[in-house]
Description:
This protein is of the alpha+beta class and 823 residues long. Helix content is 36%, strand content 19%.
Amino acid sequence: METSSEHQAYDFAYVQEKWLPIWDKLEPFKSGRADDPRPKKYVLDMFPYPSGDLHMGHAEAYALGDVIARYWIQKGFNVMHPIGWDAFGLPAENAAIKRNEDPRIWTYENIATQKSSMRRYACSFDWDRVFNTCDPEYYKWNQWLFTKLHDRGLAYRKDSAVNWCPGCQTVLANEQVVAGLCERCDSAVTKKKLNQWYFKITDYADRLLDDMEQLEGKWPEKVLLMQRNWIGRSQGANVNFVIEGRTEPVTIYTTRPDTLYGATFMVVAADSALAAELAAGSPIEAEFNSYLEKIKAASDIDRLATDRPKSGVDLKRFAINPVNGEKLPIWASDYVLADYGTGAIMAVPAHDQRDLDFARAMKLPVRVVVETGEEDPNETGIATTGDGKLINSGPLNGLSKDEAITAINKQLEADGLGKSARNYRLRDWLVSRQRYWGTPIPIVHCDKCGEVAVPDSQLPLLLPDAKGLDLKPKGQSPLAAATEWVNTKCPKCSGPAMRDTDTMDTFVDSSWYYLRYPSSTSATEPFNREEIDTWLPVDQYVGGVTHAILHLLYSRFFTKVLYDMKMLDFTEPFTRLLNQGMVVMDGSAMSKSRGNLVRLSDELENHGVDAIRLSMVFSGPPEDDVDWADVSPSGSVKFLSRAWRLSGDVASAPGVDFSKGEISLRKATHKALNDAGFAVESFRFNVAVARVMELVNATRKAIDSGCGPADPAVREATEAIAIMLSLVAPFTAEEMWERLGHKPAIALAGWPSVDPALLIDDEVEAVIQINGKIKDRMNVSPNISEADFEAAALALPSIVAELAGAAPKKVITRPPKLVNIVL
RNA sequence: GCGGGAGUGGUGAAAUGGCAGACACGCAAGUCUUAGGAACUUGUGCUCCGGCGUGCGGGUUCAAGUCCCGCCUCCCGCACCA
């Protein structure tokens, strides 16, 4: 057999083939051995969807996650770094339809492909913990959790106008509608009235907001902000308006109860039940109906168009303003949303731009009630929303906005006409889907007993065989055609009953998967409490920002529900979060149609695993996109081979006493270890790599033209390089480690401890400034006193000459780095 | 429209308020080579060689890429949320 020393040049393909089987045997990344004394850490990468082989995006994400996991392993932690597959979902189903086969085949084939690619990519995964969400052993617990949510009233059905994707022929959650388009297929989303399953995430709105305090500084600020905006809490008041000819008053929601006296009309959402009721039997009913038809036909995209003219129908009905008895005309319009607040508003055109636009379009009166010092909205067409003094407002006159809000809320409450209220932008999570490849909803519909949850003993409720079912999207779940499966007995009364035919949104699967890894094979519970208590919450989560709302919000929700069920004792699942950027090509996302697709397998073939990983990590900060057109994988190969060559040049024996080594290289080594460690901990991986490169350069110089290859400092430096490189380039590092006379696996070698004495320089170059401009430099001791430092600076000939006898006004000294002489 | 982020060499990027451009890519010259898409060395912001330089204009400070105010441009999120 050929040994590595016979290789004169760095041969990445040979090295890759050599080490993989050895690592398989050593299993350096097995976590959770009973006798493991190391402190624990849970590092988690978002699990992949098995849509074909791994691509460049995976290569980046998993390279970054691996740096973190391997760093903490080197730092002496027992790191659990698991992986699995998010395997239910539409792509598999669409592929199955195209190929006319069971989605299971496509899915499990792709999982096998990705698995073998991941092994080759040498991530530090613990392979004993793998599971796929489409395994019955997993989705059994989806169903179990669904029934628990159902018991608690957190899973419920309701009729509602839902987001409908005409392409996928299924409903979508609010979070899956991106700018009016389906997140999956980009079809324009329309509305459809349907009876669907929801999770009551709105019950948790306040906690989802308030608990973010725990995440401050640990999650990207951007993600926290997006979640805050998505939940969109607003503080205001509900006010009751009596409607002429209607017994029940109508409640409206407003954030500006202080402007109540400025209301000049009322608007109800055109697609609300109230609007239909108010229009019924009146002369304008036909006009109203045709208006309703028109807005129903409009897709979300049309609604998104900015400065779209306001439209509406005068219902010829009147509401009475509770504070002054004024008669306000009631209009129906689509600029008021049926499912926010109460679906009805009081319009205060002077102080709300939308109301003003509507008032001007419909020639309705505008009355200023807050004097803001700005121009009259009647003239300018610009509503004044700022603070000011209340006018035309009876008892509120003279108050400021905040004072008026307090006063009017108090008054309304005392009179029984209203009270302060909160509203949220967040809607309940629509979880049912009319598609095949997902978790069947474990509910049986019985004429006698109603909705009955499938009992635990009957779980998992297996997805019926795809054979014989037409999976083509048609607006109804394909499961409905599996008559033998659908027709069942009621678990309660044993009478004839029908199964629910919808499947769950796949985001249900990913909302709790991180809890499953510590006990991934348990057949008796979704997760083991003892294991959860040891490993959770996740110390470090790594994944794309695309999940800023969807997956991360849902996971936080699930965690809180499980906390309330006393199954967990923490309320936030992910302690720290890192969002990596995307891999793009020539400035835009890679796609086949664009013709800028870079195949990961080609890149790995041409440059090797380590060079691709290194290129991903070194290209810039992890949050930024990597433009593959800008990176140089061949540059990475070159660097790795330079590092590799050092290991062949070291002429001292393993175990040599480093303390006898040449001091300046020793200092460079310890500084590199210190700085690279700090950089990794602050997610500046590119900087960490730069520090290693510097050390490689310094070591090369030491060998060629310095202390020579036999000096212990050269071995110390090269070993440090190998260990630091092991985070990014595991194959090269392992090969170096062997050539240095050590046994595998370098992944467990341990981060060398940094000697603080070696971090102090003998001499530092200080800059001398006059009025902030650099005039000279001098070498000083790092612990020079302020007085000596100033004296030395003022004694420099160039400074003496420059000053020409003038007395400095002030001298700022920052020993040992800088003196600034102010004249 | 609202909210947020970012603008630094030819390129990717560094820089606890304290030497702007670390580390690379690219490019150029050289050494060694039969050869080089190898290795090594050197150079590489601009410059009229005094300086000038971090999108533009102001400000705070002994000192600003960094902090504050106002613009411009680009990117992201939300989008009639009353």
